[in-house]
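Tutorial handout. Part one gives the primary structure; part two gives the three-dimensional structure as tokens.
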Amino acid sequence: MTTTPRRATLEVAGMTCTDCEHHVTAALEEAGAEQVSADFRRGVARFTWAEGAGEAGLRAAVTSAGYTPGVLRAQSPGAPPAPGERDADYDLLVLGAGSAAFAAAIRGRDAGYRVALAEAGTLGGTCVNVGCVPSKALLAAGAAYWAAGHPRFAGVTTSAGPVDLAALVTQKDELVAALRQEKYADLVDAYGFDVLPGHAAFTGPDTVEVGGRAVRPGAVLIATGASPAAPPIPGLADAGYLTSTTALDLKQVPARLAVIGANAVGLELGQFFGHLGSAVTFLDLAGRIAPFEEPEISGALAGVLRGQGATIHTGAQIRSVERDGDLRRIRATAGGAEIVINADEILVATGRRPSTAGLGLEAAGVAVDARGAVVTDEQLRTTNPRVWAAGDVTGAPQFVYVSAYHGALAAGNALLGAGQETDLTGLPRVIFTTPPAAGAGLTEAQAREAGYQVTTSVLPATAVPRALVNHDTAGVTKLVADAATGALLGASVVGEGAGDVIQSAVLAIRHHVTAAELAATFHPYLTTAESLKLAAQAFTRDVARLSCCAA
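Part two.
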């Protein structure tokens, strides 16, 4: 009786060099394994294995060669064959070198596979270079500067001097360079995968050209991310504008800044420049800022921004942009009235477009949607069964932790036949304004659209002791629960440390904790986290009639 060969990975302890790899390879081949490749850095050997050959014989061969066999992992009988044919240059070729790509590479190398990343630009992708890291570094500085100039406590006087934005940008760039080296470049050698420089494009269903070099991979992962997109506003391109990338490199604070788009990125960067002294005007087509959050969250943020001097126009239809010397002039309608906004700089923050142009996807038989995002199934496989996609390029929520999750999951499915489906239940989101806004799970509107009968609780920050002692009561907490079971479906918080507080809600949502159970859970007094407990209690009682820490 014959047995269908399967790909397998065997942990092998004791390998210290390439000679060890040769010894282990020869031993396994002698025992009947085929297509063997050993990796001393990862301590694994990969091979094709027919179970009829006997696991005991494979282990004995490795032991006789002077090494210690460990866990053997083989694909399940029904799994698709793993990449790694003799004529493949790599088992997995990843297009891109950001968070999704590195997560995939690490997963692949941990399992002993040959992995390469193709990257035409800078190693590290959006997050470390032009996204999360540099923007949050600047936001922290802006918040500190604003706080220095606006003391909240009696008897404590602080002041803020002039701003040297160029020095601040230099400090930001130094941080970015250090993290790019530590969290990306140094990992290439540590894990032993290759980085192929140059633009990558498919030349067929199973072939890719990288920088003029033909590469034949076993499987391909598209992880090219997304880039800032601008709406087709007449005159905008000619007038010139900032994106979320170029705004991070300004060396002088603009006197007047217009921000087109008032979701997370626009609000964060707009408030940053407002903190440094810009007169900021926000414009958004939606009926409120932060339109994808709860209305109570939008209201709290609008109150904060207006209190700090910003102007907000919602329901704004921008008709045109023109330039007069250094001046940009925006003509729009809002609230039924014509408005004209003069600005020294315009920041466009209306979203990001998946980076799929020039990848040769048609040649590969990989479908994209109307926005250019790669179409995938729940396992992140594309319409080409040998090609997968992960992160922002798929149109998924554009968070670095989603990209990393996608990358690892896609690599496991592509290389190991894991068959794992994506699950974003309880996904957290943070707007890094001051104070920050954070949410997890479903908003009330989303829960109702999903068919739930819901009950909600809204708690103003004036009911939260931490906000009172901070003399900062602009926040709010909202919980959404299933009316039938009491299970928490969603949570939103505006307040100090909201991005940290929301993690408790993530766990509660993923593990079907009820509002009553959340109310009965210990929460430390005089923290913003206590707002979750108070909001949970507010489903059934008036928290204004409770003493401090009342259960």
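Part three, for discussion. The radius of gyration is 27 Å. DSSP finds 16 helices and 26 strands in the chain.
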